Amino acid sequence: MNLRKKAIGITTAVVAVVGTVLALSGCASPTPAAPTKLAVVATTTQVADFSRQIAGSAATVTGLVQANQSVHGFDPSAKNLLDLGAAKVLVTSGVDLEAWLKDAIDASGFDGTVIDASTGVTLIGNDPHIWTNPANAVMMVQNIAAGFAAAEPEQADAFATNAATYEAQLTALNTWVSDNVEQVPVAERLLVTNHDAFTYFYDAYDITFVGSIIPSLDDNAEPSAAELDTLIAAIKTTGAKAVFSEASLSPKLATTIAEEAGVKVFSGANALYSDSLGAPGSAGETYLSSTIHNVTVLMDSWGYAVLPLPATLSL
Fold it and tell me: Which of 17, 40, 210, 310 could lock 89 by a disulfide, CB 3.0 to 4.6 Å apart?
């Protein structure tokens, strides 16, 4: 047999085999494709955590801002833009917190559904840190769950069930925080922080805001010498016992202010979680754990015992 005839023979055999395979596969029942999960991108660490609690296994959630990262000065990376462009749903914290978001949407080509988690929340001034009150967190979760259900109706029941479970935890958290704070006489409920991030928390639990090192809603602002002198004087006058750094900010200035005022500084592992949640494995890994951490160190600073957690919050 010459080479040309041999090649023709091989080709004919291959065609025959392929034809047989195709014929057999046509008789077999097709394998159903795995359902595609709802692709969600969330801006802040808080709404990303809320979204994951609601999503369960019915959606994938990718966060843009990462642990211990300031949301105010956030600059989306190329990967952030790719994730955003591929998403079907975008969850935002709202109240103009994400000043960088419009440019990110334009650059990514995102054209899906936008869920504003702040919808219906009663604002205090124009403070965007609405999640610091767990009652507001409940409303944010409800907004996100409704948005997920509209975007993926087939999973609406799963989203609703997950949201209801999480809302019960948030309600228990609110009660636990209130019960703890109520142990402390109102005159002793004094708090000094890095920047103005806890307005809704102060308001919810009748805590007196003595002042902040950065007297601004934006943690990128720079305090003046006069503002720092005023804060030190206020700490001494009110009898505040501590200055709290925040996990996403440098503790250096908080340490200096505490030393000047002659009070204790809470930083490092004892810093408060405000604009961002903490890294996996830290006390601030989730919204629930970060709030429990914040209240625990506050009670310590005031000199009062922390009440046991209810079973639903035993993390």
Answer: 40
Q: Are 287 and 131 in contact (CB under 8 A)?
A: yes
Give the tokens for residue 29: 């029942």
Domain definitions of the chain by residue range: 38-178, 184-307
The SS3 assignment for 95 reads coil
Q: Are 150 and 269 in contact (CB under 8 A)?
A: no
Q: In whole angstroms, what is the distance from residue 76 CA to residue 70 CA?
A: 12
Q: Which residues of 196-207 are buried (b: 16+ CB within 10 A; e: fewer)?
A: bbbbbbbebbeb
Measured in degrees and rounded to the nearest 5, phi and psi for residue 63 equal -90, 145
Q: What backbone phi and psi angles, to 5 degrees, belong to 220?
A: -90, -5
Q: Are 264 and 241 in contact (CB under 8 A)?
A: yes
3-state secondary structure of 239: coil
- Segment 56-115, tens digit of pLDDT: 999 999 999 999 998 988 999 999 999 999 999 999 999 999 999 999 999 999 999 999
Q: In the CATH hierarchy, which top-level class contains the domain 38-178? A: alpha beta
Of 254, 298, 248, the C-alpha closest to 44 is: 248
Reported CATH class of domain 184-307: alpha beta
